[in-house]
Request: fold
Amino acid sequence: MTKFSEILLVCNGKAGQGTLEVQLKDAVPPLLEVCHTLTIHETKEKGDAEKICREKGNQYELVIIMGGDGTVHEGINGLSSLESSPLVAILPGGTCNDFARSLHIPMNIRQAVRLITELPLEKNIDIVKAGDRYFSNFWGTGLISKTADNIDVGSKSVLGKLSYYISAFQSIQESPFIDVTITTKDKVLKEEVVMVLVANGCSIATNPLPDCINMEDGLLDIYLVKKSGFPLLKEFFFIKSTGDVRDEFDDIIHIQASEVDIELSENEKIDMDGELYEGNKQSLKVLHHHLRFIVGIEG
Reply:
């Protein structure tokens, strides 16, 4: 059993379909057994998790973020800006919990807590700087951001991840083409696409991404989807080969780079880890092994 001096638990009681009290009942007792001091901060409004992690993160040996992808995105933005960051753990409490899935963390809170309390496995994970923001899992525009923008908050709370698939079907019918210029150290690509996806993690809306994606290799996996249609996207999300989709699909271009500049012909919605932004230019840079996480065992 691993012992920690001080643990900070940042939690979002509104994430997922459970209540904060139920989640804490499963998490707090075993955590108290492995630390001298446990401090709990509940977020009250958007931006709180980022502020708490930025202002208090380096005061603790371990920071645990309990909530969905939005809470995790905020927490990582707070922690990534620190000169000296703590060990980080995630307790999934949202609808999709994609970054937690990428780290092979169980979706059950009790099982996830055991990763922390019973000989935790730690890994240095890449984080991506996007302008003045950070993301851990993915950056996307076109079809993927349109899907996120179409999701009805009420249906998300009732239907959970099913709402993502309903929105995807609606978005496919109305996806316009986007003119994009991709610039890396080695090449410049100009394409007309329906979606740009830059992946660091391995899951989007619980869908597994190609097996080639490695969160520790210092590289981004950049996919340009040139043609819409559910059959193509279905095949894309369930590729289980090397991930070199250029050999399998003429309508998907795949490149890897540690840095990339993306320029769109006009302002578009941009989805970073499930949170929507807007713009037409973005510089992405991998911060290799930037944060250390407690992770699960793959498979």
